[in-house]
Amino acid sequence: MTWSDRPAPSLDDFALLAKQAFDALPDGFRQLSGDVVIRVDDFPADEVLDSLGIEDPFELTGLYQGVDLGRRSVLDPAAEPSRIFLYRRPILDEWAERGDVPLGELISHVLVHEIGHHFGLSDDDIHRIEDEA
Questions:
Q1: Domain containing 40 — which CATH number?
Q2: Is residue 3 a part of any domain in this protein?
Q3: Is residue 132 scored above 80 in pLDDT?
Q4: Distances 26 to 2, 21, 22, 59 between C-alpha atoms, Å
Q5: Is there a domain that residue 6 lies in?
Q6: What residues contact residue 43 under an 8 Å CB cut-off, 6+ apart?
Q7: Of the candidates 13, 4, 14, which has an alpha carbon nearest to the alpha carbon of residue 100?
Q8: What is the mean pLDDT of residues 99-118?
């Protein structure tokens, strides 16, 4: 579905697109990220923006919150589940501005980027991998 001839997808539509993107990932990738909770919100919370020093909520399309796999230890107390937030309105805004990528592909890109943080990769690591792909 291209969404070019329909109203903007709802939060539920976005959650379905995110699930489809996750389900399309290679099995090993999904298994390693299986305990991550994926949540779709319209925008990041003000506290999140403040903690990241971001003034414009349209600048943040996704966020990983949790302890990445590289820093976990069986000796640590049980942590809350790791979460990936996908922000519907900033993703829609980027999709509309770009006009050169299907919405599902953009959601998948943001999701994979945030899963990269779950694996312990930095933004620089992720960008380098993207450039090499």
A1: 3.30.2010.20
A2: no
A3: no
A4: 23, 11, 9, 29
A5: no
A6: 57, 87, 89, 90
A7: 4
A8: 91
Quote the tokens at residue 11.
Answer: 């939060």
Contact status, residue 114 vs residue 66, Cβ threshold 8 Å: no
Separation of alpha carbons 20 and 47, rounded Å: 29
**pLDDT tens digits, 10-35:** 999 999 999 999 999 888 888 888 78
**pLDDT, tens digit (0-9, with 9 covering 90-100), for 30-80:** 888 878 899 999 999 999 999 999 999 999 999 999 877 767 666 666 667
DSSP string, 35-103: TPEEEEESS--HHHHHHHT---GGG--EEEES--GGG--TTSPPPPPPEEEEEHHHHHHHHHHH-SS-H
The total number of structural domains in the chain stands at 1
20 in a structural domain = yes
Torsion 93-123-30-73 (CA) sign: negative
User: Which domain range does residue 126 map to?
Assistant: 11-70+79-132
Cα 69 to Cα 67: distance, rounded to the nearest angstrom: 7
φ, ψ dihedrals at 23, nearest 5°: -65, -25
